[in-house]
């Protein structure tokens, strides 16, 4: 596999209702928008919404993708996500196993 710059890989966090996590994760991988999605199945979120503190039980998706696929991943998630304003935040990767980084690039090429 090719040599890949760590900075071209992104880790994306998406919170989602627990019952929607598997469907969204599978869709992101099937569409080749993410090479891998890990599901942390049980998180609790507190946040401001509708002028009040809200509390939800959610899942956290941890997606591995590339800079080139991030905008498409975000668009797909906004379309498929049940929330009006889904949390989609991205972090550039600063380092990683070169073979793994190459795999992420390879699996999101399609």
TL;DR?
This protein has helices at residues 21-30, 67-80, 98-107, and strands at 9-17, 36-49, 52-66, 88-92.
Please provide a written account of the structure.
It is a single chain. 31% of the residues lie in helices and 39% in strands. The chain has helices at 21-30, 67-80, 98-107; strands at residues 9-17, 36-49, 52-66, 88-92. Strands 2-3-1-4 form a 4-stranded antiparallel sheet. The chain is elongated, with a radius of gyration of 15 Å. The relative contact order is 0.33. The model has no long low-confidence stretch (mean pLDDT 95). The protein has 110 residues and is of the alpha+beta class. It has a single domain, classed as 2-Layer Sandwich (Alpha-Beta Plaits).
